[in-house]
Protein 1
Amino acid sequence: MTDTRAGFVALIGEPNAGKSTLLNRMVGAKVSIVTHKVQTTRARIRGVAIEGGSQLVFVDTPGLFKPRRRLDRAMVAAAWGGAADADVVVLMIEAQRGITEGVKAILARLTEIAEGRKVALAINKIDRVKTEALLALTKEMNDAHPFEETFLISAEKGHGCDALRDWLAGQMPEGPWLYPEDQIADLPLRMIAAEMTREKLTLRLHQELPYELTVETESWEERDDGTARIDQVIYVARDGHKGIVLGKKGETVKAVSKAAREELQEFMGRRVHLFLQVKVRPNWLEESARYSEMGLDFSDGNA
């Protein structure tokens, strides 16, 4: 039998650096929602990839940013917690953004948690900048932190991703695999389903989308005919937000439900009946149960 390796890889970086896109490419399936709205990833979603005899468990952390609200603080705590628990940390930055104030802050904190674990740099969206700028950025970043390796990638197009995965596979500690071979994520299906609906809301509403919105899977019924009935609640903070989510004559929520149902059916390989309700909960951002549902620690949101 081949020697096996298994370990955790934390993807960290600013919001919208491309972490979720990279995770989905590494795993080969959609386990983390990808939108153009910042701070999309709330929970530490783990995707599992196999490379040769190595099992890579990816922790897709929320983007690191300056927290203002309780939810922000809990998300940032989850991100650093994911990095501190990992065997290897991959810092992702966007090529065209370069070294922002946010990247500088991450680099400063990285030194604290890097002890005892390898840290690689992945410069993403390399197709959007010239070679000279890319080389200068690579040098500047490596002068700022002693990265084990630097990878120039396009998570969206796949450039450089195989080399990164091969390298990561070799860095995993020797030991038995942590998950069954056919498992691609350790998130419960209920949470993956809620995340898919939240992605469709984000894509549909763009700038209108109230940040104070979350989706929960309230019930999941397996039916005798092999289909599943899924009931979800979209929680918003204000009455005005409810109208935005519903849309004129309920058109928005219907379109979101259809898109989410189709993606869920593709993901699960069977028919799904999805029912959405929109409820107003003015203080959901201060309710510990909502944080548990998102895989976050409510106490981490304390100032």
Note: The beta strands are 5-13, 45-51, 54-60, 88-94, 118-124, 150-152, 213-222, 228-236, 272-280.
Protein 2
Amino acid sequence: MNWVASLRSTWPRRAPGLPPGQRRLDIFPRFSDNPLLRPPLSVGPARIEVRGEGITPFTLTANDLARIGPREQTSDFHCVTTWTHRQVRWTGLPMTAVWKQLIAPRCPDRAAYVVAIGADEFRAVYTLDDLLDPDVLVASAMHGEPLEIRHGAPLRLVSPSQYGYKSVKHFCALEIHFTEPSSTLGPKEHLRARVALEERHSRIPARLLRWPYRLLVPLTITVAERTGRMASGEAQARRRPKAPEAG
């Protein structure tokens, strides 16, 4: 692919049937609020640490999660910066089942908010009701293949009805809260972030953000993909056996 074609592929384009302010992007890139943020150089087995107010910390292991039957679902992925990648096929565990079967029995009834945390230290704040929406998935595979590190391996919390910053890559922990916690993204993170209502930002009207956000898409994709490739190269180098020393 030449440079012009590659740049063109990063620009969102008009398409029918999309939510307010969204445009279609045919590629599904690695993307981040901080494109210089590197993914973890290695990922271990799937596990979710649970901690927070009124709770004794515990960890859901891969064996715990295996008690819940997997589900496949296909949904569009909507980034807050106005691009949408259509028809992503995810495989994973319904968050409602994970919560009701594995977390709720050990969690106070007063829980109202949760913070989902990735191994790259990204954090997203949810109301408990939004986290338990029927289409929220703890995904482990995409299009029939295990998640790549660039897309959030080993687990990704996928919330199709919310903007992409709620779909936490490298999902590894949940914090339980009784009152709304502060966001590490500041006002850029809308608590609900519902795509259908165009809740892009907690303070600025969504229509004012469409073009400023959209103009940043090509540069953000370019930097985020380059950061991901560099991290993947370092991870591969670490896994290579060392050559025996001479002498």
Note: The chain has a mean pLDDT of 91.
